[in-house]
Design brief:
Elements (H helix, E strand, L loop, with lengths): L7 E5 L3 H18 L3 E7 L5 H9 L7 E7 L6 H12 L5 E7 L6 H6 L4 E5 L5 H18 L3 E2 L1 H11 L3 H15 L4 E2 L1 H7 L8 H10 L12 H26 L16 H12 L3 H20 L4 H17 L1
Parallel strand pairs: 1-4, 1-5, 2-3, 3-4, 6-7
């Protein structure tokens, strides 16, 4: 006996590649449930939400049930989002709707009003260790699909070399599977031999270079929203710390009395912040935060390449430092 599936699914992930992989898995599950399905894909930056909902509400006698994938709902305006929420509350019984989003910000009403019908996979607030454990399992499963055992030590080393960008990781595992040939195991020595370092520096290193460095920071390798959005958050913290320090120093507060104003900053980190923050004015930090806010809006609401958005911010911030 088949268990009825929900009619509405939501996939939230800053990585567009992984988002589409999860959508494909949902579509596969629906295809196994239904005798015949028709898959439709519409990017909301290119089409009309109203048209998509009309398609869902229009039953077809010949092409089977429709499965509509609407990507980019985090970019919807308030009126369109209200229209979507209204549909999700009472979805068509003759169709399936899959929603894709890079962020869960602004989707509170969709979650609350659609909770009876909505199945959500939200990876937007995933902790670094949660991401690492999930990627490890995914890569081990990828190797197992080709009847290869990927040792945990080898997976850990691959993540250290390549980072958490899923397309690169999957490409490296495919290379390792081919290299292993008739062997059943993929070892850490295989990873050391075949896989070169592609990983960007640690997040805190990037933030330090971007905010406090004297030269523009050029990030090598792929940049995607899964890197850009956490990076923006950490840069914001550093700039806010800097503005607090600069404001207190401008008011004549001695540097050794600043710690109580920043209780979440460790003494060693505060000591490191004092010198560069002392060299900047309060006006610099205010303008830098305004620039970062514009960058965050662009990252979440535009279709521009994340790498280009980051390069633009870094260039503007470096120019700001020059004045």
């Amino acid at each position: 006996m088949k268990v009825p599936l929900s009619k509405v699914f939501l996939v939230v992930s800053p990585c567009s590649y992984e988002r589409r992989k999860i959508v494909d898995q949902i579509f596969h599950a629906i295809s196994k449930q239904e005798n015949e399905v028709q898959f439709l894909h519409r990017d909301l930056s290119e089409g009309s939400l109203k048209l998509g909902i009309e398609e869902l509400n229009t039953l077809s006698l010949f092409s089977g049930k429709k499965v509509l994938y609407l990507n980019g709902i985090d970019k919807l305006k308030k009126g369109d989002l209200a229209l979507l929420v209204e549909y999700v509350e009472k979805p068509s019984s003759g169709a399936y709707l899959i929603l894709g989003s890079a962020s869960s910000k602004g989707l509170t009403e969709l979650y609350s009003k659609g909770k009876k019908e909505l199945i959500a996979c939200d990876l937007s607030d995933e902790k670094p260790w949660e991401l690492k454990n999930r990627l490890k399992k995914r890569l081990i499963d990828q190797a197992a699909h080709s009847k290869k055992r990927f040792s945990p030590e080898a997976v850990d080393h691959l993540l250290e070399l390549v980072g958490s960008f899923l397309p690169n990781l999957e490409q490296e595992v495919d290379k390792l599977i081919t290299y292993a040939a008739l062997r059943s195991d993929i070892s850490i020595s295989d990873v050391q031999l075949l896989c070169s370092a592609q990983k960007t520096p640690h997040l805190w290193e990037l933030v330090d270079q971007i905010v406090w460095g004297h030269a523009p920071c050029k990030i090598e390798g792929s940049v995607d929203l899964s890197l850009l959005l956490p990076l923006i958050s950490q840069i914001k913290n550093q700039l806010q710390y800097g503005m607090t320090i600069a404001t207190l120093l401008a008011r004549g507060v001695p540097s050794h009395e600043i710690a109580p104003y920043l209780p979440t900053v460790k003494p060693a980190s505060l000591e490191k912040l004092l010198s560069p923050a002392r060299q900047k004015s309060v006006r610099f930090f205010k303008r830098a935060l305004d620039l970062l806010f514009e960058t965050e809006l662009m990252a979440k609401n535009s279709g521009f390449d994340p790498g280009w958005i980051l390069d633009l911010f870094v260039s503007k911030l470096h120019l700001l430092k020059s004045f």
